[in-house]
Specification:
11 helices; 297 residues; globular; mainly alpha
């Protein structure tokens, strides 16, 4: 495998690891407060790295608006919806829903970029959604008692938010792609996008609306876990995938980075000591296979 392909695969692994770490603190704090603290930690680390390496010199004025818009849609809206979904449906279901960004990206490319939808892509889209349905509807055994498998609130609301998170991520990546192809430093692009999210989340919390405030005080242990989760997902994972997109084939990169639903299952097994249901494995593998069909067409 090329360095770009390895980077995409490593990004999927770090996202799975981050999701398992994030589930507890996100539920305890609430999605908005959790995401702001997480993004704030990530921004400080990324900004320090960019200043030390001089990566900010690769950023031009014409890159700012697309990256700001990408950060607003892909990270602020997308990640917020993702963590609200995780708090409602658990990390397994939220990640399987988030993986629909592959077929959504294909559909957006057809609608707005004039890309052709060949038979292979249509089959891939169908396979992904079949996998999602299997994993969501039949992915839990009755004997599983862990809270991560408990649905909080209407399932339909959680599923809608998960699909919205995937849509936002796809749109954010679509906007950022032309900028990354110009050679912008991936860490610098990530830092700017994360900063946009921090500003928006802070503004939302400053409104004083009770539903977006922290549910509990942040402990040192919680802050450390959130920091590790954020660095893994945004500091390392997003930078890896942006690096992969800067030199790898988009289809292969997208397919490898979409393997998170498969990687997360053994991590959940280790964490909860409850083996995921057979349909959870089958659904995840179908999602990965469908993504491969979509992006290799």
């Amino acid at each position: 495998m090329s360095p770009f392909e390895l980077a995409a695969l490593a990004a999927a692994m770090t996202w799975a690891f981050s999701a398992v770490l994030a589930a507890g603190p996100s539920g305890a704090l609430g999605a908005i407060a959790f995401n702001r603290l997480r993004m704030g930690i990530v921004f400080v680390i990324l900004a320090a790295y960019v200043l030390l390496t001089g990566g900010w010199r690769t950023l031009e004025t014409g890159h700012l608006l697309p990256l700001i818009l990408s950060g607003f849609i892909g990270i602020f809206l997308g990640d917020t919806c993702l963590f609200v979904t995780m708090n409602r449906l658990g990390p397994r279901r939220s990640n399987i829903l988030f993986s629909t960004n592959a077929p959504i990206s294909a559909l957006l490319g057809w609608m707005f970029l004039g890309e052709t939808i060949v038979t292979q892509k249509i089959v891939g889209i169908a396979v992904v959604f079949a996998g999602v349905v299997l994993a969501i509807v039949f992915g839990k055994r009755r004997s599983q008692l862990d809270t991560w498998e408990t649905v909080k609130g209407p399932m339909a609301v959680g599923v809608t938010l998960g699909l919205l998170a995937a849509l936002c991520q796809s749109v954010g990546s679509l906007i950022a792609r032309p900028v990354m192809e110009t050679g912008v430093d991936p860490a610098t692009a990530s830092a700017l996008r994360v900063l946009v999210s921090v500003v928006c989340l802070s503004a939302l919390m400053a409104t004083g609306i009770r539903q977006v405030q922290a549910k509990t005080a942040v402990t040192m242990r919680m802050a450390v876990v959130i920091g590790i989760s954020g660095i893994a997902a945004m500091g390392i994972g997003m930078t890896l995938v942006l690096f992969a997109l800067s030199g790898g084939k988009v289809g292969i990169v997208a397919t490898l980075s979409a393997t998170t639903p498969a990687w997360i299952l053994p991590l959940i097994w280790i964490k909860t000591r409850e083996r995921p249901a057979a349909m959870a494995w089958v659904g995840s593998l179908l999602v990965v296979a469908g993504s491969g069909l979509i992006f290799s067409a």
